[in-house]
Every structure is written in structure tokens, then in C-alpha cells.
Amino acid sequence: MLKALNWRLQARRGFATAWAKPFQVAIDGPAASGKSTTAKMVAQRLGFQYIDTGAFYRCITYEVLSREIDPTDPRNEEQISNIAEQAHIRLQTLFAAASGVSKDQDRILHSLPTTRVFLEEQDVSSQIRTEHVSQHVSAVAAIGGVRQAVLQKVRSIGAQDDARYVDGSPDSKSSTEGLVMDGRDIGTVVLPHADLKVFLVADSRVRAERRLLELIKSGATPAQEKLDIDAVQRDLERRDELDRTRKVSPLMKAKDAMELDTSGLTIETQVDVIVQEVYRRRKSAA
Ligand SMILES: Nc1ncnc2c1ncn2[C@@H]1O[C@H](COP(=O)(O)OP(=O)(O)O)[C@@H](O)[C@H]1O
Ligand SMILES: Nc1ccn([C@H]2C[C@H](O)[C@@H](COP(=O)(O)OP(=O)(O)O)O2)c(=O)n1
Q1: How confident is the model over 117-131, as pLDDT tens digits?
Q2: CA-CA distance, 144 to 123, in Å (whole number)?
Q3: Is 90 in the pocket of ligand 1 (CB under 6 A)?
Q4: pTM of the model
């Protein structure tokens, strides 16, 4: 009843002002399945806010490694949890000018929104994406105290009651209309009542090829990073195993999530499937 009234109001006043609770899209899945690329594009197409929860775990890992603390030693768990609790992390997503719908993968990637990540107001966007951080992040993310601290930080963004962490896009309506959040436990723990839950999967060889291409494009030559396709695939599978088997909020598909295998899909198609599903659910809730 209340929902129907809201949707009628929406028709008259526009989506941004009518719906008090933003439409929540939760995207989970294993490493390099396409979560962040898809989530950013969905957010851009719908004018929604985008929150990369993996960035929080990466920032904490970066800080832990900078202090030369071993994240795999259980004796360090309390110290690492304290670092997580005290860390001030802020995301700033900059949306590109409306690019319309394109089928050209390079053009699509070029017009992707960019997320800058600040740790204690220092821009650490590139430092948190190194292989060194990637190799240790699953161990840090498995610590209960770290998950508790990150959960608190990202939930407060999801509830829209703390603007400190996300500056949002230059388009202010994006933070009120809806929200796309990606990670490992968004549909199961962070946003259990999300309006749409998506679980992205892809063959591990395909994911390794994509990740390798991404690393090469970012300037890391295979020789520098000692990378080859088998090593990248092994590392992705090792991280997935750690993420799936940890005790606290492991990576898993929520019962009510829609599974999407991106192995044979173009980026444009996977974005389109989700955007159409958001439209369909909005319509049926009206
Ligand atoms: N359908 C697709 N076809 C080709 N490349 C893709 C596809 N989906 C994602 N990618 C690429 O794969 C890489 C990993 O995607 P990303 O979104 O970073 O994954 P995740 O956030 O799940 O780790 C990126 O370089 C991205 O551009
Ligand atoms: N909600 C989340 C998000 C990320 N994590 C963990 C698991 C991942 O190994 C790391 C990094 O996540 P991120 O999404 O940045 O990693 P990939 O881009 O998929 O390689 O953080 C998590 O446990 N829960």
C-alpha cells in the first residue's frame, strides 16, 4: 500500500524525491568476475550511487602491509582489527558525462566512472590495486574484527546517513535514487533486503585472461610482476577458496540472488540484463 503510494508519487514528482529508501542493487561474486565494471556501469546508466566495498578491505591491507604486520599470523588479529576500526576511508566516484549505450568495449571502458579512494585523506587509489595488496587482502578480510569494522562503515553509507565516506558524483540525484554496492557479502550480510541481488560468476580461465589484460593495460609488464596466465589463474582460485571458506560472512550466493555467468557475455550485455531487471522490478513494485 505504502509502496504503491510512493510509486504514484514518483510518477508525478520523479524518482529522486518520491522514494525515501534508495533502490538497492547488491552485486557479489568471485574475483575478476566483472563486479566493479558492471556495478559502475549500472550505476552510471541508472544515475545511482556506486560503492566498492572491496576498496575498504584493500585500504586496510595496504595500511597493515605498510606497517610490516603479517596478516597471516593469528597473533596480529587484534592489532589489525584496531587498524580497521580507526581507519578513515573515503570513496569518491566520478561519473563520466552520459555516454549513451555503446557496443565498443574500449569506448565502454574509457567512459567508466572512476573511484578514487582516500585513506586518512591520502589518495591511495593505485597503491591498493597492486599485486602485493591483492595477494594479502583475503587474509585480512577473513578477520572477524576487520569485517565488523568494515560492515559498520559500509552499512552507514548504504543507509545514506553518513556522507563522510562518499562524495558521490557531480550529479547530486545519484545518492538519493539508488545505490549499487559490490563485494562478497553484500546480498547476504551488508544489504540483506536489497531490491535486486546479482551473483556474477565466470570461468576461472576467462577471469585470469581478463585480469592479466587489465594488469598489462595498467602498465605492469608480465616480466615486472612475474605474471603469466597460469599464475594469475592460480592466484584467483586461491583467493576464491579463502573467501569461500572463511568463518565470517564467506563468499556465497544469497538464496534470492540472480546468477549471471559473464564468461561468454560482453560487458554491455551483462550491464543491460541488470538494468532491465531493475526497470522490471520497479515497474512491478509500482
Ligand atoms: N564481459 C566481459 N568481457 C570482457 N572483459 C570483461 C567483462 N566483464 C569484465 N571484464 C573485464 O574483466 C576485468 C575484471 O573485471 P572487474 O570488474 O574488475 O572484476 P571484479 O570487480 O569482479 O574483480 C576488468 O578488466 C573488466 O574490464
Ligand atoms: N564485501 C567484500 C568485499 C571484498 N572482500 C574481500 C575479498 C577480496 O579478496 C578482497 C578484495 O576485493 P575486490 O572486490 O577489490 O577484489 P577483486 O577486484 O575481485 O580482485 O576483499 C570481502 O571479503 N567482502
Answers
A1: 999 999 999 999 988
A2: 26
A3: no
A4: 0.87
Which helix (DSSP H) or strand (DSSP E) does residue 3 occupy? helix 2-13
Give the CATH fold of the 18-278 domain. Answer: Rossmann fold (3.40.50)
The ipTM estimated for the assembled molecules is 0.97
| Contact yes or no for 51/40 (Cβ under 8 A) | no
Give the residue whose CA is nearest to atom 15 of ligand 2: 54
Tell me how far apart the alpha carbons of residues 64 and 75 are, in angstroms, rounded to a whole number. 14
Length of the chain: 286
Q: Where do the structural domains in the chain lie, given as residue ranges?
A: 18-278
**Closest residue by Cα to residue 277 from 105, 46, 102, 44:** 46
Contact 270, 202 (CB under 8 A): no
User: What letter represents residue 74's amino acid?
Assistant: P
Q: C-alpha cell of 175?
A: 545518492
Low-confidence ranges of the chain (pLDDT < 70): 1-20, 96-110, 158-176, 220-227
How far apart are alpha carbons 65 and 127 in whole angstroms?
11
Q: What is the pLDDT of residues 250-272, one digit of tens each?
A: 999 999 999 999 999 999 999 99
Q: Which three cell numbers stand for residue 108?
A: 565502454
Nearest C-alpha neighbor of 176 from the set 40, 59, 14, 9: 14
Distance 132 CA to ligand 2 centre (A): 14
Torsion angle of alpha carbons 2, 282, 195, 153, nearest 10°?
-90
CA distance 58 to 124: 10
Beta strand residue intervals within the chain, DSSP E: 23-28, 49-52, 89-94, 114-119, 122-123, 178-183, 196-201, 258-261
C-alpha 176 – ligand 2 centre gap (Å): 25
Q: Within a 10 A sphere around the Cβ of 47, how many other Cβ atoms?
A: 18
